[in-house]
Amino acid sequence: MKKLTEMGLNRTGVDSSPIDSKDIIGAALNSTPTSLDGDEEIGKIRASYIMNAKPLGTLPVPGTIKGGVSTILEKLAGNRPELLIDKLGERLAFERTGTRLYEAIVQKCRVLDSDRAGIPVATLERFRDQELRHFGLVRDALMSLGADPTAQTPAADAAAVASGGILKVVSDPRTSVLQSFEAILIAELADFESWDMLIRVAEEMELKEIAASFRGAYDEEKVHLETIRSWLSDLMLTKKTAVKESAA
Ligand SMILES: [Fe+2]
Ligand SMILES: [Fe+2]
């Protein structure tokens, strides 16, 4: 039986060893600070790094533009097309990670028999398939704009770093269903907001077809978010939790 929270030999707090912790607190109080200037000096060093740092990455020049062929992107020239390509690249990477996230939670829930506890694996499989379809939508949008969907954009890079911990939590065999869903909630909140922003950017650029094709994904993301929220509240607030977290 895998319970939600178990009492065990957790020795991370000071109460687990009053004598040693007294020693450590005494040593900390008597030690000399490594910086006598507070945070001012380290602030100067950080500022110099920020001023001299190169950007996280660049956007590739679309192949069709390189060849001199007129593309929709060229028509958007005065309208920051680079922002759209950067954000599309980010969405593409996020949806790919979203598919992997759901694949990981599908496996975990299957092993823990979450169906019995009201978390149907079939629903999670549907969400996984939808994330994959969203990936395809963004890939198609990038290609219709003459951009290369295999290129990693700077925003994709930043988002991958930001969301790296989420995948680690869900794919860790030690984490519970509750802990995994809490991590997925972070992803779904970001997903929902990002689709909304992307649709607004596409509408502002008068890319009506792309904006329309994204609206279906936005509606599905809304369902993902509401469902994960509701399952989390079930896991947190009902006495069925122990059953839901139980392993065969
Ligand atoms: Fe998604
Ligand atoms: Fe989602």
Please provide a written account of the structure.
The protein has ten helices and no strands. By secondary structure, it is mainly alpha-helical. The protein has one domain: Ferritin (Up-down Bundle), CATH 1.20.1260. The longest helix has 31 residues, at 81-111. The protein is flat, with a radius of gyration of 24 Å. The N and C termini lie close together (7 Å). Bound molecules: fe (ii) ion (FE2) (2 copies). One fe (ii) ion (FE2) binds next to helix 8 and helix 9.
Summarize the structure.
By secondary structure, the protein is mainly α.
What is the CATH superfamily classification? Answer: Ferritin, core subunit, four-helix bundle
**How many helices in DSSP terms?**
10
What do the pLDDT scores average to?
Answer: 86
Write the CATH fold name. Answer: Ferritin
Pick out the low-confidence regions. 65-70, 241-248
Helix residue percentage: 55-70%
**So what's the CATH class?**
Mainly Alpha
Q: What is the total number of structural domains?
A: 1
Could you say which structural class the secondary elements and strand pairing correspond to? mainly alpha
What are the distinct ligands in this entry? Answer: fe (ii) ion
Task: Report the portion of residues in β strands.
Answer: under 5%
Beta strand count: 0
**How are helices and strands ordered from N to C?**
HHHHHHHHHH
| CATH architecture designation | Up-down Bundle
Q: What does the main sheet amount to?
A: none
Shape: flat
Task: Report, as a whole number of angstroms, the end-to-end distance.
Answer: 7 Å
User: How big is the Rg?
Assistant: 24 Å
